Amino acid sequence: GQVFSDTVNTGIYVMEPEVFDYVQADTSVDWSGDVFPQLMKDGKPIYGYIAEGYWEDVGTHESYVKAQADVLERKVDVDIDGFEISPGVWVAEGADVHPDAVLRGPLYIGDYAKIEAGAEIREHTVVGSNVVVKSGAFLHRAVVHDNVFVGAQSNLRGCVIGKNTDVMRAARIEDGAVIGDECLVGEESIIQGNVRVYPFKTIEAGAFVNTSVIWESRGQAHLFGTRGVSGILNVEITPELAVRLAGAYATTLKKGATVTTARDHSRGARALKRAVISALQASAIDVRDLENVPLPVARQQTARGSAGGIMIRTSPGVPDSVDIMFFDERGADLSQARQRKLDRVYARQEYRRAFPGEIGDLHFPSSVFDSYTGSLLRNVDTDGIADAGLKVVVDASNGSAGLVLPSLLGRLGVDALTINPGLDESRPTESAETRRAGLVRLGEIVSSARAAFGVRFDPVGERLSLVDERGRIIEDDRALLVMLDLVAAERRSGRVALPVTTTRVAEQVAAYHGTQVEWTTTSPDDLTRVGREDTTIFGGDGRGGFIVPEFSSVFDGAAAFVRLIGLVARTQLTLSQIDARIPRAHVLRRDLATPWAVKGLVMRRVVEAAGDRDVDITDGVRVVETDGRWVMVLPDPSEAVTHLWAEGPDDASAQVLLDEWAAVVDSAGD
């Protein structure tokens, strides 16, 4: 009712210096309430200018988003820096927009932004410079500032995202939300409408945020995951981070110590390894650089006189991500205690720096593959192979395993057909679909060649998949039982190291041959610990990882391959015959999103729900029913996820058990 004009004071003033004589020092004054009335009282000239152009007070979220939309609707006379590739769709110079991306203007894409196939960008969206929008992401009326990462399947509607922020896979940010600069919005998290997340905050994966995050972070920082330090290349894992990590690792070692470095055949790993080497040398550490080698070779070479090692590889199945893996002096993954020590040094940024005369040396050892294969063949039993006349097909999957195979197969004396031996720099890892297709093709070749079996290495030579003589794929969990049966039948004593999530059929197989199972946690570090003990004859994780203790206590695809050839040659049984004599297992798995804040409550609810039933706490909580069925609930150490396994006499009974305990886990979040 007090409005009597259709104009507004924009608060833009042009003044003569003497106006400031009307402003008292150290006193709060208001221009329109104090200074201008006094100027008018003194008869000083004051003028107004009525501008005819566009005006919008962008002091609120709604008006800020409206101003962006008005520019795109051409209601504002401004030059848009870019090319109008279709009506209302503006794309700046250097932007990479995939032809299969869906663009529905009006919208703007900034310079050097990258929009992947399958992404959908809708009306009134503004994408800043160097923004990455992954496949399946959906943006509508979103204003995204520079250098933002928008993960796959994420959903951004009517929100504002500050610069240098990472929005991870399947996150949802709703209308009216504002995310500040340099934040991390975790996978599958939900930011409700009108929530404000202030700069430099972390929202945990799976979180549901309905109030503003001002002081605290709704997340939990974990440096180490199940594969070392992992993240998206040049988003989460940058050269700067690699330098700080390597500096922290060097600080945990003595000056003058030697560290072995290695990488896979990807360009990203090559670039990061150079940063790591520089940081190590600058921290008074000598470096032995193996360059591109299989992961087991890196571990074995680390154990030959180094204080530790660092391997950089592409994350399995995730081509945009990398793993920075840290080894101890035995080539095994760092223990939990040493991970925490490295974490503390990194968090405090207490890095040691060398004096000029202490800068570390850089060496490139020679004959690495000959050294590895020589040691392998000296330690693993190869009796009977030469006389068996076996033919095998070996798929190197265009990875670094192909680098060691020529030396290995030549000295092993086996009739081997090697396929996909060359390195493919553009494919340092493979999807589940690609891997499956490769196994199908391997099976066809094995069958047509009448080979004894086929093996397929993963791209870094750590894991092994099997195909029997008929060309049928032996699934990884089944391959573990086949290898266990072969080893136990030959050794007739000793212990087998298996994670507690493995089917209890393994106990039947081991006991039948006079061996026993040593159950471990799901941590590779724990499996390695048991693998080092003298009485251990075998180990595996049911995902293609096999331990051959007489050679190494870590997963090694080549060692498993050599041992398998020897076992088959001496047993004179086919893989299908061995598989047929092992009972079927019925283990099902499910993952449930669980916010960090309720993980403790989840485990308490599980223990309470177990009641009088047998409970095994080797890792997580495993509840055993009176009829032998069991379920295991395990909170993930690095992600906002709870893992469940269940085993029964058939899939249906295992499914019922899984559903029952999934409801218990879900109830903790209600």
TrEMBL record:
One Pfam family cited in the UniProt record for this chain: PGM_PMM_I
Phosphoprotein is among the record's keywords: yes
Domain Alpha-D-phosphohexomutase alpha/beta/alpha residue range list: 223-350, 371-471, 479-579
Record-linked CDD domains: MPG1_transferase
InterPro entries reported for this sequence: A-D-PHexomutase_a/b/a-I (IPR005844), A-D-PHexomutase_a/b/a-I/II/III (IPR016055), A-D-PHexomutase_a/b/a-II (IPR005845), A-D-PHexomutase_a/b/a-III (IPR005846), A-D-PHexomutase_C_sf (IPR036900), GMPPB_C (IPR056729), Mannose-1P_guanyltransferase (IPR050486), NTP_transferase_dom (IPR005835)
Organism annotation: Streptomyces halstedii
Keyword annotations from UniProtKB, A to Z: Phosphoprotein
Span of domain Nucleotidyl transferase: 5-73
Domain Mannose-1-phosphate guanyltransferase C-terminal, first and last residues per copy: 104-206
Similarity comment: Belongs to the phosphohexose mutase family.
Species classification: Bacteria, Bacillati, Actinomycetota, Actinomycetes, Kitasatosporales
Signal peptide residue numbers: none
Entry protein name: Mannose-1-phosphate guanyltransferase
